[in-house]
Each structure stands twice: as structure tokens, then as C-alpha cells.
Amino acid sequence: MTVLMMRVTGLSVVLAAAGVVFAGPQAAHASPGPADPTAPAVSAGEPAELGVVGRGSVRATPDVMRLSVGVEVRRDKAGAAFAAVKEGAARLTDALIAAGVARQDLRTNDLSLGTEYEKYPKVVGYRASQGVEALVRDLSKADAVIDAVAAAGDEVRLSGLSFEISRTHALLKEARAAAYRDARAKAEQYAALAGRQVGRVMKLEEEGDSAPPRFAMAEKASVSPGQGTITIIVRAIYELV
Predict the structure, then answer these.
(1) What is the count of structural domains for the chain?
(2) Coil, strand or helix at 217
């Protein structure tokens, strides 16, 4: 069974602790644990296995900005509030498209109409809102898109933005290869210390998260995606010969 667990916090990745273990046939499926430096070396010719943890990391620059924006209005009548929010959302959509966002990269992610009370059941107005999520695939236009949102009207709201890597397949392959090399190198070192050689791979598991990594929201008007790290962790059990 292969389990993927990869997490990015801000611009950093949280890693699991590495472990190394020598095991005989009875412990073939035991989880790798920390090496005991006081444990006796494995005797030559005695069947044994070696468990190690390998890590592979790749630095990556995001290529997509996800922008959460919307329009919120308040009117005396429900119909007027709903019509006003639709009109404001249309202006916002036009502004985003004019700034370089493709129409297919825009989607409505929230639409609401609520009643406001002075003291229940006395109604004093109606509030309507519509949220829009925009994907900016050309980061050179990021500042222009945000400026366009700010200029779209006083009823427009910017609720957040995040950066993502849209194509992680090649990066994950590179990280996996690095993690496997790391595990193999550790296994060969420990095998040599025990006077043995590394044989076939008995078990190989991966930990990571298949979801696209997200990056921290920029705090300034001039946005910068920065860089993040994609990390793959593998747990391998090798035969010692």
C-alpha cells in the first residue's frame, strides 16, 4: 500500500523523523525505528533486513495565483439588493478579464441574500453578496489584476490570495528519485558498517500529499510568490546479504 503525505506550511515543509533498523526474518514487516548504536552487529551469513528512511526535496516556484474576491451590497429591498450584487459582480468580472484573467478561470463560489433586523422582527434592509474565485496563470499580471479589483468599486471585497504550482508531476518524480537515492545511500552505509551488502528491496512505502502545494499569502500590494519545497519521504526495507 502506498500512502502519500506531503505538507507545505507557508514556504516550508514539515518532515517526518528518519529511522534505521536491523531486523531478522521475524521482523520483516516491522516499522523502521531509530537505530540503536549499542546493538550488536549482524553476523555474517545470518539472514537479516535493514530499514531506512529516505528524503528527497525539490525547490519550486509557484506559477499560479488563486484570488478570492467578491461583491457585497446592502439595500432596502431584497430585489434591489440582489440586482445590485449581480451588477457589481458583472463589473468585477469585466475588470478581471480586462486585466488578463481568462473567463474560464473565473467561477462563482458564493451567492447569498440575507435579511437585516433592527430588532426582530423589524426588517431594516437586505444584504447580498457574491464571491468569485480567479486563477491568474500569468504571474506577471498579478499586480495588475489586484489593482483592477481595487478599482472595480467600493462594494468589492478582496478576501485572500494564495500561490500554487499547477504542474507538480515532474517535480514529484524528481523528489521521489532523490528520496530513493537517499534511502539507498543510507542502506549501503549501514550495511558496510555491519559487514554486509545491500540486496533486493523487500518493501518500499512513500509518504506525501498529492494535493498541489500552497504558498503563503503575500502581505504587500506588490505580490511575490517566493519559493517552496516539495518533499517526498520513503521508507525502505532492504535485504542484507
Answers:
(1) 2
(2) coil
